[in-house]
Amino acid sequence: MSERYGVTTLDELAMPAIPGQARWHTVRRTLGVSAFGVNAWTATADGGQIIGEHEEASGEAHEELYIVVTGHATFTLDGEEVAAPAGTLVHVADPAVKRGAVGEEGTTIIVVGAKPGEAFTPSTWERASEALQFWPNEDWDGAIEVLERHLSETPEQAGTHYNLACAHARAASSSKAASITRSASSTPCRASGATCCGCRPSASALASARSPSSRLTAGCSIG
Predict the structure, then answer these.
(1) Rounded CA gap, 110 and 113, in Å?
(2) CA distance 36 to 27
(3) CA distance linking residue 70 with residue 117, whole number of Å
(4) Is the Cβ–Cβ distance between 62 and 47 less than 8 Å?
(5) How far apart are CA 107 and CA 85, in angstroms?
(6) Which is nearest to 13 in space by CA: 25, 29, 1, 2?
(7) CB-based burial of residue 20 (10 Å sphere; 0-12 exposed, 13-18 middle, 19+ buried)?
(8) Contact 57, 27 (CB under 8 A)
(9) Tens digit of each residue's pLDDT (9 = 90 or more) over 23-32
């Protein structure tokens, strides 16, 4: 790595695995890409969700390009299934298109995108998802520190409220978790993706956060 260019591999950028989730490769953040969003995701099981079903019109309004690097994926675009073996490019120019993808274990998809005509800014989801690295090792103090910092910057983000409640619940701070969950329940969700773990969490949703498979809220795929 230098200030002028960077060279790495997707394996080197892989975040720790979380049961039931695609593995995230932190491309944009690690390389310091600032002109556009770019990240990658790998299926950890056959038939696993790689790109959570979502549309961009109500969120970041990104134009997106999906590149299937390895394996075999199946995209669903406004209800139409599209086979996507390695080497396939899927361009979604219209942010209103509902899109998602599943794939066989080991399938990796790179996602590139930004809002046409505007300078790129990282999504609130990607910044909050820095806490994801603490989930596998159950370092709840680390996750709470990241999420509280993000919440102080963007208090309107319901997903961050909920994920912070998840972390406090896993850390056995049930009273703190309940308080944050009440805040999340009254905050409009601004996540662009449909893979969030509950924008208006119920008591049962909070209880499920104690499970090792609890997941961080995901917005759009590119960050």
Answers:
(1) 10
(2) 11
(3) 31
(4) no
(5) 9
(6) 25
(7) middle
(8) no
(9) 999 999 899 9
Contact indicator for 198, 111 with CB cutoff of 8 Å: no
Please give the domain boundaries of the chain with CATH numbers for all domains: 11-114 (2.60.120.10), 124-208 (1.25.40)
Task: Give the predicted TM-score (pTM) of the model.
Answer: 0.71
Interacting residues of 78 by C-beta distance below 8 A, sequence separation 6+: 97, 98, 99
Do 151 and 163 contact (CB within 8 A), yes or no?
no
Buried b (16+ CB within 10 A) or exposed e, 148-171: eebbeeeeebbbbbbbbbbbbbbb
Strand order, beta sheet including 63-70: 23-25, 37-42, 108-114, 63-70, 89-92
Contact indicator for 73, 84 with CB cutoff of 8 Å: yes
Using alpha carbons, list the distances in angstroms from residue 53 to 12, 72, 114, 202, 219: 27, 17, 18, 22, 10
Running DSSP on this structure, what letter comes out for residue 14? B
Query: d(Cα 64, Cα 87) in Å, to the nearest integer?
Result: 16
Q: How far apart are CA 194 and CA 36, in angstroms?
A: 22
Provide φ and ψ at 19, rounded to 5°: -50, 135
**How crowded is residue 112: how many other Cβ atoms within 10 Å of its Cβ?**
22
Total Cβ atoms within 10 A of residue 27: 20
pLDDT tens, residue by residue, 117-147: 999 988 766 766 777 778 777 888 888 888 8
